[in-house]
From TrEMBL:
This is GATC amidotransferase. PANTHER family: GLUTAMYL-TRNA(GLN) AMIDOTRANSFERASE SUBUNIT C, MITOCHONDRIAL (PTHR15004). Signal peptide: none annotated. The lineage of its organism: Eukaryota, Metazoa, Chordata, Craniata, Vertebrata. It comes from Malurus elegans. One of its GO terms (cellular component) is mitochondrion.
Length: 109
């Protein structure tokens, strides 16, 4: 199944993932093909699962029993990058190529 330039553009903005090369587009197409297998599953008579947030006005919280604490130093040792005492997340809004630029490598996939 071919992925249109518009769908690719939408997915890139949602996921902040760059599909600039043909390998990225090919991987996306394989993922879609894999997920399409779910269409053959017979779900007749199967009720939708209940969601915690669906039709609920109030969420009940459990009591929070703290058993450990003061482990900031140990937690920050897991960070690839940190500033002061904060994890550094990847930047959002990565620059993406224009639709016309991506159209060229989509033709070859």
């Amino acid at each position: 199944q071919k992925v249109s330039v518009e769908v690719l553009d939408h997915l890139e903005h949602l996921a902040l993932v760059d599909f600039r090369d043909s390998e990225g587009v090919e991987r996306l197409q394989k993922a879609i093909q894999f997920a399409d297998q779910l269409h053959v599953v017979n779900t007749d008579g199967v009720e939708p699962m209940d969601s915690v947030l669906e039709d609920r006005w109030c969420l009940y919280l459990r009591e929070d029993n703290v058993t450990e604490g003061n482990c900031t130093k140990e937690l920050l040792e897991n960070a690839r990058e940190k500033v002061e005492e904060y994890f550094v997340a990847p930047p959002g809004n990565i620059p993406l190529p224009k639709l016309e630029e991506r159209d060229s490598f989509l033709q070859g996939s």
